[in-house]
Amino acid sequence: MYRLCFIVICMFTLLSAKTVYGEEIVVHKHLQQAIDGANDGDVLIIKQGVYKGPITIDKSIRFIAEPGVVIDGEGSEYVVVIRASHVHVEGMTIRQSGYGRGAGVFIKESSHVTLKNVRIEDTHYGVYVESGMHINIVNNVIQGRDVHFAQRGNGIHLLKTKHVAIRDNHISRVQDGIYLDWAKQTVMKKNEIIASRYAIHLMYAEGGIAKENVMTENINGIMMMMSKQFTIERNTIAKQLDYRGYGVLIYDSEHVVMHNNTLRHNNTALSLQNARQCEIRGNEFINNYRALHSLYENKDAIVVENQFLGNMEDALIQGAPIVFDDGEKGNYWDTYRFYDWNDDGIGDAPHRIRSMYSRLLQRWPSVQFYFQSPALALLDTTESFFAQAQAQGEDRFPLMDIPDRQNERKKWSWKLLLFGSILLLSSLTMLEYGRRKIK
Amino acid sequence: MKKIASLLFLCFLVACSGENAYEPKEINPDIDVCVVCNMGIAAEQYATEAILKDGTVYTFDDIGCMMEWMNQQNDDDIAKLYVRDVTNGEWVELEQAVYVYNATYWTPMSYGVVSFANEQNAKAYMEKEGQGQLWTYEQLKQHRWGFEQ
């Protein structure tokens, strides 16, 4: 009986419990005074209006704005400074930081900070985090100044951070959308980054993932330098069309996994430059000027089960050879011209990366005018017979169909076979029936 | 005839002087890319340049990239090497510049070495940053180049 009573009391306590915050304070003016007067755990509700910055949050408070709240830095270095842990900032517009090192939001040596539904405009850096951990930057809009990218700051800049999550943000017109400098275990998911220099720039980053982001119309999509143990998965990286534009450039980095991304309409979709132990698998390279570029020695890098469709140039290998298969499967190349007589889904002859066209393109870029012309087809075919020794690389197990479609084709082939058999059987039955009737 | 000859001689002199001057070229952030790391040069005041005797100009985004590039070059091909004073962007020859080093300094590739036209600017920078070591070119040459944290 006692045990039952105890359980009932516990359940009642649990059901009636709710998150306990401190006092709820409604703020109409003088933000800094309100913060100074608040205690840890208080919730500050900011009423509509334009407030003068800068402000410094040095307490564990929730700072929630009603619609129409603007904090204007009026050119001061930072607009909102956070120097405490367990801080939640939500819902306002932050604008007009200073130049140089100025930022809309500056978070220093803090942990468990959330920045949500905030609009940051006309600032040098959008959000600058220095030595922070467990920071969430979610669903914000960051729009840089309308000046040349060399004069802009980064959208979100992380310096020596750990466990930062950057999700669902829209970043445009900044120098680099998200800049990671000695940042560890950063998660970047479902962000949209456009019209900037580099969408994501990693310098000495370690661990972490970039997943389902959309990066378009920047100079580079992902610029990875001296970083390691990083995953790039299911991103859409398109229209990096600047003459020096790259979808993804991996420079002097190791243990990078790049899976199931779509890279289309880029100048160069992927460049590997001293990328060690990297796995490039299951990506779509579609309609790029050049799909893959390999420079220096990319030790133990593997490029497998990718699709190369409609690229002006599939690959340019300028350093050591690169591995295009895992011993069983290679990649799908729409330029592959041989057959699969034994129907195992793998082409009967290796796919050689054509070199003559690449060399011509490098020397005379205007040669691209002849792309897919009969003259080039003739050159390719001639080269495939004679230039084995000059091939830049080869895929020993080229796929005969796009990896996803392969299973689908098998599934459909069974259905078609069944349908055909039924049709044949019914025709024969009808013929036999007709023949007997005539008799 | 004399006039034409003098004009030709003048043109010859101008052409010769232009070729041998090996002046640094202005950085264009829309075009210039570091030849070592491929990064676009956005922080122009940290850019460096190497000019070969045939007039080819190579740009670098960080002095560390240029030093790495120099290790793989034939010194006889190099005509001039330039760095910039980060405070005002003035071009200075590599050997005549003054350097300040600290592992925590921000530079585009985090080599932590910053260049100046004179000691006064270098000291002012160190004072502003609160740390750093003053180096001459000889000390710079002894440095073991690597990325700093």
From TrEMBL, chain A:
Residues 38-181 form the Carbohydrate-binding/sugar hydrolysis domain. The keyword Translocase does not apply. Keywords: Repeat. InterPro entries: Carb-bd_sugar_hydrolysis-dom, NosD_copper_fam, NosD_dom, PbH1, Pectin_lyas_fold, Pectin_lyase_fold/virulence, SCF-Subunits/Alg-Epimerases. Gene3D superfamilies: Single-stranded right-handed beta-helix, Pectin lyase-like. Pfam families: NosD. It comes from the Bacteria. NCBIfam families: NosD_copper_fam. PANTHER family: F-BOX ONLY PROTEIN, F-BOX ONLY PROTEIN 10. This is Nitrous oxidase accessory protein. It comes from Anoxybacillus pushchinoensis.
UniProtKB/TrEMBL annotation, chain B:
It holds the Pfam family NosL. Keywords: Signal. The keyword Zinc does not apply. PROSITE patterns: PROKAR_LIPOPROTEIN. InterPro entries: N2O_reductase_NosL. The keyword ATP-binding does not apply. Residues 1-21 form the signal peptide. This is Copper chaperone NosL. It comes from Anoxybacillus pushchinoensis.
